[in-house]
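stage 2 :: seqdesign
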């Protein structure tokens, strides 16, 4: 996910305020500072402060977690529809079954491949979303969800930024090559310095996006609520993956990209590390995919009205 620095504060506040399931105008991390504490209860406020994680969201979860998830996904669509320019996302699915993984030594192979595609995602997304309007794209910081395998990897914590700068790309550079690994629960940072509670929310948002996209494409869960919230972003995915035309197709493509690698045949290890091979997307990736999750009706009721 890409967040322009001049939009970061605005995005942070909007995600936070959407946690308020009352007026949704202002949310305070602490109940004692809640502007609606006269009408709010501490137990509800605490639920509104929950971590949002797609894997843990199901039909049995609290109403607050469900409503926040819905609000964030609707906010995602509105960011596109209303041309808000608050954030952009690019998802690359890597089909390992096409890549002769036995040639890598599997355990190390997965980490090496992830490292390589992580860099290509940053470069590809930077150019796709910002190349047209800017002569220079500077990535200030790179953030990643906490992961022991990534944090303890010999290269991953620093190599992406270093390699991008070392290759002297014409437009893209990285100010801080060291990746920040963040806890995805923003409450972890309430008494920590530096305070990454807002950045942690971004990790939660991209997790929700990844989860609902995967649910649509692969129908990985039969849970009714996961199906329900995944339907919220169905119009965006129909445009990106099935080339369905609607009123906002061009704006969905302006703010989001989903692709799959490789496009054809089996992929050898050596090709992954050819200079600029993955950054040149022509013929390497494909972006058409049949959505496997069936259509689910959003909850509705039917009424007769008398007057």
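stage 2 :: out
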């Amino acid at each position: 996910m890409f967040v322009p620095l001049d939009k970061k504060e605005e995005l942070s506040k909007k995600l936070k305020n959407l946690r308020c399931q009352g007026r949704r105008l202002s949310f305070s991390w602490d109940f004692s500072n809640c502007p609606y504490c006269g009408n709010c209860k501490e137990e509800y406020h605490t639920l509104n402060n929950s971590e949002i994680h797609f894997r843990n969201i199901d039909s049995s979860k609290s109403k607050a977690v469900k409503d926040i998830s819905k609000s964030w996904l609707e906010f995602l669509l509105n960011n596109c529809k209303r041309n808000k320019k608050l954030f952009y996302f690019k998802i690359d699915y890597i089909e390992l079954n096409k890549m002769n993984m036995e040639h890598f030594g599997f355990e190390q192979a997965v980490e090496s491949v992830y490292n390589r595609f992580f860099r290509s995602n940053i470069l590809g997304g930077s150019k796709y979303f910002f190349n047209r309007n800017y002569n220079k794209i500077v990535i200030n910081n790179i953030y990643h969800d906490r992961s022991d395998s990534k944090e303890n990897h010999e290269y991953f914590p620093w190599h992406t930024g270093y390699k991008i700068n070392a290759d002297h790309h014409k437009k893209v550079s990285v100010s801080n090559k060291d990746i920040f690994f963040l806890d995805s629960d923003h409450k972890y940072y309430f008494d920590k310095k530096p305070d990454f509670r807002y950045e942690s929310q971004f990790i939660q948002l991209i997790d929700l996006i990844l989860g609902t996209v995967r649910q649509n494409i692969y129908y990985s869960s039969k849970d009714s609520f996961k199906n329900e919230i995944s339907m919220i972003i169905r119009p965006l995915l129909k445009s990106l993956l099935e080339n369905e035309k609607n009123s906002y197709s061009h704006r969905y493509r302006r703010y989001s990209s989903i692709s799959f690698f490789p496009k054809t045949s089996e992929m050898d290890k050596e090709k992954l590390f050819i200079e600029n091979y993955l950054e040149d997307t022509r013929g390497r990736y494909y972006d058409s995919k049949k959505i496997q999750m069936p259509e689910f009706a959003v909850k509705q009721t039917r009424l007769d009205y008398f007057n």
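stage 3 :: structure notes
- The CA atoms of residues 228 and 298 lie 6 Å apart.
- The first helix runs from residue 5 to 17.
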